[in-house]
Amino acid sequence: MKNAPRCVHCPYESVCHLGCLGAQYEALGELFIPANSVCQMKQAKINNLVMAYYDMGVFHSATRQYIQKVIAHTARQLT
């Protein structure tokens, strides 16, 4: 359950765990809306993991190209 408008089209939505519900409620007054800083941290973590897996030969080059497009798209959304 993701109520934030930015979550609707987020390419990370399927792997997002929303962060800490208590911290989100305390900071934003909402349980299911993650803070921007949490989104940015989780996205960077996922991006770095995917790139590391690519460098190890786990993912095909098409995956690297896809994740680079996702990174660029996400950066535009956050600005």
Model description:
63% of the residues lie in helices and 0% in strands. The chain is mostly helical and 79 residues long. Helix 3 (36-55) packs antiparallel against helix 4 (61-78). The longest helix is centred in the middle third of the chain and has 20 residues, at 36-55. It is elongated, with a radius of gyration of 14 Å. The mean pLDDT is 79.
- Mean pLDDT equals 79
Percent of sequence in beta strands: under 5%
Tell me the distance between the termini.
24 Å
The Rg value, from CA coordinates, equals: 14 Å
Oligomer state equals: single chain
Helix content: 55-70%
* Helix and strand pattern: HHHH
Q: Give the overall shape, derived from the CA principal axes.
A: elongated
- The tally of strands reads 0
Structural class: mainly alpha
Largest sheet: none
Residue stretches low in confidence (pLDDT < 50, at least 5 long) are none
| Number of helical regions | 4
Keywords:
0% strand; 79 residues; 63% helix; mainly alpha; elongated
Give the arrangement of secondary structure elements.
Elements: H1 5-8, H2 21-28, H3 36-55, H4 61-78
Helix pairs in contact: 3-4
How do you describe this structure in short?
The protein has helices at residues 5-8, 21-28, 36-55, 61-78. It is mainly alpha-helical.
